[in-house]
Amino acid sequence: MKPRALKPWLLLAAAVLAFVPCLALAAEPHLAEPVPGMPQLAFGHPEQGRFLIASIVWLFIIFGILYYVMATYALPGVAQVLETRRARIEGDLEQAQAAKQRADAALAEHEAATARARAEAQAAVTSATQHAQAEAAEKAEALNARLNAQIEEAEQRIAASRDSAMAALRSVAADTAEALVKRLTGGADRAAVDQAVGAELAARGRA
Amino acid sequence: MAAEGNSIDALSQFSLTPVLGAVGNSVGFTQSTAHMLLAVGVVTLLMMWGMSRRAIVPGRLQAMAESAYEFVHDLAVGQIGDEGKRYFPFIFSLFMFILLGNLLGLLPYGFAFTSHIAVTFGLAALVFVIVTIVALSIHGLHFFSYFFPEGAPKALAPLIIPIEIISYLSRPVSLSVRLFANMVAGHVMLEVFAAFVVMIGGAAGVLGILGATLPLAVNVALVGFELLVAFLQAYVFAILTSIYLHDAVHLH
Does A95 fall in a domain? Predict the structure, then answer.
């Protein structure tokens, strides 16, 4: 049965229904003549018997009203409320489940991002270190090369100076020898002196 | 009314007196009828006004209405099975009607209409007719196999079938007499001890007043006991109706 909305008139009717008996009972009761034995069984009694039969008729009417109101209005309403509550609780539980899953996913994502960032940072550090090392090595090499070049240049300069000095030595020696020969002999053959000096130098390994 | 002379009149409390004057007298509207209306009004108010807020988190009245609903619903579905949902409004109405009838009788000036065999037998007959109609409409003529249990020796049929029929027919009697007798006994006891209070209290001065506290204490205990009986008898009536309906739906 489809639940129906609460009818205000029904509430009012129920209130009146509950109030009328109170009014009726508050009034002075009709004094019946005493019933011998159990009044419940006095079906033969002229007045009591009539009331007993009437109470059965009233029972069916009043119980019928109760059944109609309960089956049509009251109970479907309660069922609806209970159903709504059940659905609400289930929905809330599902929502909580979904929220938990979202939170778990976010946590996993966060952890992955952290790990990624850590790896990236590690890689950056490594590459920077390598870069710096390479640079340092390069600089050291360049410095070495320059120094070597300078050393070599200096050696060459020294060798050149020595060679020129040696070359000058020969002419100085030839000049000295010519001068000596001229002083001793009065004349000197420049070419012979030169040759002699050259031979002498060659003999000494200085040519 | 209770003590006239020296004899205790514990039964006249059950006599029906018409209310609403001449009109009530002419249609047989007695205090019993008034209490039936009151019970219906109280149940309707509880179930409709109590549920009117339709709150997810119930208040007191709504919790009361809901627990009444769930109590009877569990009873009906537990006894009858899933088909019990069809008969649930009937069982609920029965339970609440009888419960309110019993409880209203315990209030001062109240009257327990369930202390009348006419009323309890009317309800029991209603149950009997409904159960039989349900059984016939579900099982048709096969329903009559209910009176002869399957597998019983054929030779015993002349014995078993009358017994089964008698036990089936005696259901409304036992159902109605149980409720009626419980309520009558309770109210007679209350009346008798209340009469003792008046008789002893009025008899011997101070000593009498002291002595009257004893039956008064008994009456206090009895009221508590009667509250239990009021609930228990409504429950018994409802659960027996459910069991009969279960038999009608499932045939054993």
Answer: no
DSSP string, chain A: ----PPPHHHHHHHHHHHHHHHHHHHSPPP-PPPPSS-GGG-TTSHHHHHHHHHHHHHHHHHHHHHHHHIIIIIHHHHHHHHHHHHHHHHHHHHHHHHHHHHHHHHHHHHHHHHHHHHHHHHHHHHHHHHHHHHHHHHHHHHHHHHHHHHHHHHHHHHHHHHHHHHHHHHHHHHHHHHHHHHHHHS---HHHHHHHHHHHHHHHT--
What is the pLDDT confidence band of residue A170, given thresholds at 50, 70 and 90? confident
Residue A41 Cα, gap to closest chain B Cα (Å)? 8
Q: Which of residues 122-181 of A touch B (CB under 8 A)?
A: none
pLDDT over threshold 60, residue A143: yes
Q: How confident is the model at residue A140 (pLDDT cuts 50, 70, 90)?
A: very high
Alpha-carbon distance A110 to nearest alpha carbon in chain B (angstroms) = 38
B111-128 residue pLDDT tens? 999 999 999 999 999 999
* Average pLDDT rounded to a whole number, residues A162-181: 82
Contacts of B69 in chain A (CB under 8 A): 75, 78-79, 82
Q: Which domain range does residue B173 map to? A: 3-250
Mean pLDDT of B198-223: 85
Kindly provide the ipTM of the predicted complex, given to two decimals. 0.89
The reported pLDDT for the residue numbered A89 is 93
The answer to whether position A191 is within a domain reads yes
Decide if A143 is inside a domain: no
Contact residues, chain A, for B54 at CB < 8 Å: 77, 80-81, 84
Least confident of A24-28, B23-27, B37-41, B111-115: A24-28
User: Domain residues for A182?
Assistant: 163-204
Give the gap in angstroms from C-alpha B62 to the nearest C-alpha of chain A. Answer: 9
Partner A contacted by B107 (CB < 8 A): no
Query: Nearest CA of chain B to the CA of A125: how many Å?
Result: 60
Residue A195 within a domain: yes
> Which residues of chain B have a CB within 8 Å of the CB of A8?
none
Instruction: Report the number of distinct structural domains present in chain A.
Output: 1
How many domains does the structure of chain B reveal? 1
Interface-testing mutation among B20, B25, B27, B30, with chain A (most A C-beta atoms within 10 A): B30
